[in-house]
Design a protein that fits this description.
single chain; alpha/beta; Rossmann fold; 3 domains; 11 strands; 21% helix; globular; binds guanosine-5'-diphosphate; binds magnesium ion; binds zinc ion
Length: 303
């Protein structure tokens, strides 16, 4: 919902949308018709209520596979859950400790965002807990691949100015696991936000899904931020095995030199990627991350 005059309307959808949106082009069924970040046309019903008439085309959107429990159609099929649309920058928020830095998790988010063509920046929070300077090592690792990395401590207000500077005039989405400090970081940069801190989201105690909708706020003229509930797992949606390499920046320069154009860079003969790993041109860590994700795609046949 968005009106230029900054009034807030609670909108419902015209019924026809539900049918129209069921079949997306190359993808499976999606969970949501209108999503956070969408620009819409709506008719005013009252001062607070409206009906959405049109959803504008999305410049991009970030999604993942929805949890298996919800809305499964067939065995093995997974719905697409859109986190938000029309995003200028995705800040992937991690912490170096509590919870422990998890580069595999980060890589999965990177793949999801790269496949959507979204600009990515990496945040490593809680450096006040980093006794062994691991955050520096990871900063270097991800910088070398080509991502901007911010090492910060939200509670100690270290490194936040740099992040704040890069938000102007944009829609920025903050995404990452539960407890890494997304809400804290946003509250420290913009005290008026008052996002809840320390909330365990995504699953209730019984293990069922709770709402996973984020929240968009305008923090300055034309500057929007989206806080999201923490996530526990992320499987990028709709990525085929043969396409995965396109979302690994470090691997891309080599993929056209493979002997077979069907190469998925696993153990095919004449694979230029494997060769580059052996020659130290691609870090083994990066390659292992690639293989790790490749293996999880194997099980999802339906697109
Ligand atoms: N030590 C430390 N704790 C932090 C930092 N940033 C956030 N926290 C704590 O981490 C917990 C989770 O923060 P929260 O913002 O709710 O995380 P979210 O789930 O990603 O939104 C809270 O107890 C915060 O006080 C930090 O820089 N250092
Ligand atoms: Mg939060
Ligand atoms: Zn190859």
């Amino acid at each position: 919902m968005q009106s230029t005059s900054k009034e807030i309307f609670r909108c419902s959808l015209r019924g026809r949308f539900k049918k129209e949106f069921r079949h997306k082009k190359n993808k499976l069924l999606t969970l949501d018709v209108a999503v956070l970040g969408d620009w819409v046309e709506f008719t005013k019903v009252s001062d607070e209520i409206g009906v959405i008439e049109e959803i504008k085309n999305r410049n991009n959107y970030l999604s993942r596979k929805a949890g298996k429990a919800r809305g499964s159609l067939k065995r093995g099929s997974r719905l697409e859950q859109i986190i938000a649309s029309n995003i200028d920058t995705l800040f992937i928020v991690n912490s170096i400790k509590s919870p422990e830095f998890n580069n595999r998790f980060l890589d999965r988010i990177i793949v999801a965002a790269e496949s959507s063509g979204i600009d990515i920046k990496v945040i490593i929070n809680k450096i006040d807990l980093d006794k062994r300077d691991l955050s520096k090592m990871w900063e270097q690792f991800y910088s070398e691949i080509g991502y901007t990395v911010f090492n910060i401590s939200a509670t100690n207000n270290i490194g936040l100015k740099e992040i704040k500077k890069s938000l102007d005039g944009k829609v920025s989405l903050f995404w990452g696991r539960s407890g890494v400090g997304k809400s804290t970081l946003l509250n420290v940069m913009f005290p008026s936000l008052q996002f809840n801190v320390g909330e365990i989201s995504e699953y209730s105690d019984k293990g069922t899904h709770t709402t996973v909708t984020g929240e968009m706020r305008e923090v300055k003229e034309n500057t929007y931020i989206i806080d999201t509930p923490g996530i526990r797992e992320i499987d990028p949606f709709g990525i085929k095995k043969e396409d995965l390499c396109h979302y690994y920046k470090a691997v891309i320069p080599y993929i056209h030199d493979c002997k077979f154009n069907t190469c998925i860079h696993e153990h095919e003969p004449g694979c230029a990627v494997v060769d580059a790993v052996e020659r130290g041109k691609i870090s083994f860590e990066r390659y292992e991350s690639y293989l790790n994700l490749l293996n999880t795609i194997e099980d999802d046949m339906i697109y």
